[in-house]
Design brief:
The complex is a heterodimer of chains A (about 280) and B (about 300). Chain A is mostly helical and about 280 residues long. Chain A has helices at about 5-35, 50-55, 60-95, 100-110, 115-130, 135-160, 160-170, 175-205, 205-210, 220-230, 235-255. Chain B is mainly α. Chain B has a two-stranded antiparallel sheet with strand order 1-2. Classes of the chains: A mainly alpha (about 280), B mainly alpha (about 300). Chains A and B meet through α1, α3, α4, α5 and α6 of A and α1, α2, α4, α5 and α6 of B.
Chain lengths: ~280, ~300
């Protein structure tokens, strides 16, 4: 850039490398620790081994938690896909009072600190006396997942031409046919991308989930409980590597599907922390 | 009427779509009803439930909810020193993390957008996305291992002969870990803010004789400030509402608002008090968002 001296360019490059190390050394350590042969988590490790992988795989508690997370993730994603795309269509196609407020309302569950959303849902559950179940977990997850689908679909709709829909109608297609053969193919990859992100968000969430799960263990709650009590740490190390992979694969796929749409910018992001 | 051709007698599906097409408000209303019902009946209702239950209390003998209006929970919050300390600690660390992340992110984003080649830029973007989307809990956990007495940090310090640093389970640990976890949330808005600054403005500044630093402070910085504030909304709000990091890497005296809320929902079983304390970050965020809007951060989100 003009006005940037050689010296400051070098300094900035060094800074960038340091930040990259800061970001990635911990992630590399997660990978390494999964192969720690010892029960003790001190550094340096005494060799590498895959001996904890099979005992982790056969850990019944872990499996139970894993399946609970998968079920919660899939159903929340389905709800988010339906409601998120409905909201995106409404906001894209129609002008109505309070239209601007919709985006704000949908982003609230992830923009507000996680304990507020969690505590609010917890009060609500207590209030109505419905008791904790898979349903209450799903209600919490779907609430903050809707926005990822909404953002993806809305961004896609804004880039497509409404003339295609009009042409379809002119050619005699009814509303359903137009949706099925024109609109749906246009937004298909955005739906898949939004759904994948929603699943990644749900699978990893803990702050809101602790307030809506009662005594049930999702995978993150199982991990958190074991870390806190210092139990089964070798198995936690293996699960944790697995969780990192599960949360990254959908994101990599979603990015491939929505290349150059800027979907993965922060407003669509704000994952984790249930935040 | 024996004909079934839709030219003279449209079938039911055709009639429904035609009816909907003629009434856009009906289509819009139907589309909006689902998501809106979900948010109003569940989310907004839950927020109302939060406020209402914060005004209730718990019978100290039976442990049952007492449904009479009282401001006692809020009185406790403001008069008991411990809770004030916890609230101030939470807000103070959230502010420190926000400033730290802004300082870390600014040169990085500047290099990525203005100096790096297109290929390096693409790689850096992915390098920010990976930690952003990696599991939050996992990234906190690994810092617990790094900062432990026998962890990587002390080993590395020992290797270069600097002795050891016992900052595991302390406010320092929380500061480092929060700064680590939320850094990508600060980088991305600053990144796009720098991207939006036209090259011509930088060139004009140089033509007018400004050196690098002057161009940065008088031209670039004011233009990217909304991006910094946008990023700070994330870093501040996310830190404010956390209890996982304080539990895993904070020390004995490192409770956050979230820890008190969590304990009162669980062990202490005083949901009204938990609800009352949860309104504190809500109010703080409300004030913060008002300031952020003034600074133009919403356009930069």
């Amino acid at each position: 850039m003009i006005g940037t001296s050689r010296l400051s360019r070098i300094a900035l490059a060094v800074w960038t490398v340091l930040i990259l190390l800061f970001l990635f050394v911990p992630i590399a350590l997660i990978v390494v620790y999964a192969f720690n042969p010892s029960n003790v988590q001190s550094w340096p490790l005494h060799g590498l081994s895959t001996k904890w992988f099979s005992s982790t795989w056969h850990n019944a508690e872990m499996r139970h938690a894993f399946w609970l997370s998968v079920r919660a993730g899939l159903i929340s994603t389905a709800i988010a896909l339906l409601l998120g795309s409905m909201a995106a269509f409404a906001v894209h196609r129609f002008r109505f009072f309070g239209r601007e407020a919709i985006s704000f309302l949908l982003v609230l569950p992830i923009a507000l600190p996680g304990i507020i959303t969690g505590m609010a849902l917890n009060s609500f559950i207590n209030f109505s006396g419905i008791g904790f179940s898979l349903t209450t977990i799903i209600v919490g997850h779907a609430t903050f997942c809707i926005v990822t689908v909404y953002n993806n679909v809305l961004a896609r709709l804004r880039r497509t031409q409404s003339s295609l829909v009009e042409a379809s109608m002119d050619l005699g297609a009814d509303g359903w046919q137009t949706f099925r053969f024109v609109t749906l193919p246009m937004i298909a990859t955005a739906l898949v991308a939004g759904g994948l992100l929603a699943f990644a968000l749900s699978f990893d969430e803990i702050v809101v989930t602790t307030f809506t799960a009662g005594a049930q263990n999702t995978l993150p709650i199982w991990i958190f409980g074991n870390i806190r009590l210092g139990q089964q740490l070798p198995q936690v190390n293996v699960v944790v590597l697995f969780v990192i992979l599960v949360s990254l694969i959908p994101v990599a796929l979603a990015r491939r599907l929505t290349r150059d749409t800027g979907i993965l910018r922060p407003t669509a992001a704000a994952p984790a922390a249930g935040a | 009427m024996s004909s079934t051709g839709f030219a003279d007698r449209p079938n039911a599906r055709m009639r429904v779509s035609a009816a909907l097409f003629r009434r856009p408000w009906l289509r819009g209303g139907l589309l909006l009803s689902g998501p809106l019902a979900w948010f109003v009946l569940i989310y907004l209702a839950a927020l109302v439930a939060l406020f209402v239950s914060s005004l209730w209390s718990v019978d100290s003998f039976t442990g049952n909810l007492v449904h009479t209006w009282t401001l006692n929970n809020f009185k406790t919050l403001f008069t008991v020193g411990t809770y004030r300390t916890i609230a101030l600690r939470t807000i103070g660390i959230a502010a420190a993390v926000t400033v730290t992340d802004a300082l870390l992110a600014l040169p990085f984003a500047f290099f990525a957008v203005r100096i790096a080649s297109k290929r390096v830029q693409g790689a850096l973007f992915v390098a920010v996305l990976i930690p952003l989307w990696s599991s939050y809990l996992v990234r906190v956990y690994v810092w617990r291992l790094i900062l432990a007495k026998e962890g990587v940090l002390n080993w590395a310090l020992g290797q270069i002969g600097l002795g050891s640093l016992n900052i595991g389970y302390s406010n320092w640990a929380m500061w480092i870990v929060f700064s680590y976890i939320w850094l990508p949330f600060m980088i991305l808005p600053i990144w796009s803010a720098i991207e939006r600054v036209p090259d011509s403005l930088i060139e004009a500044s140089a033509d007018l004789g400004a050196r690098g630093w002057r161009t940065f402070s008088s031209v670039l910085f004011p233009l990217i400030l909304p991006g910094i504030v946008a990023g700070s909304i994330f870093t501040f709000a996310l830190t404010l509402g956390d209890y996982i990091t304080p539990t895993l890497v904070g020390g004995a005296g490192s409770d956050f608002i979230g820890n008190v809320v969590y304990a009162n929902v669980g062990v202490a079983s005083n949901v009204p008090f938990a609800a009352a304390f949860a309104t504190v970050p809500l109010v703080v965020m409300g004030v913060y968002l008002l300031i952020a809007r003034r600074l133009g951060a919403f356009e930069a989100l």
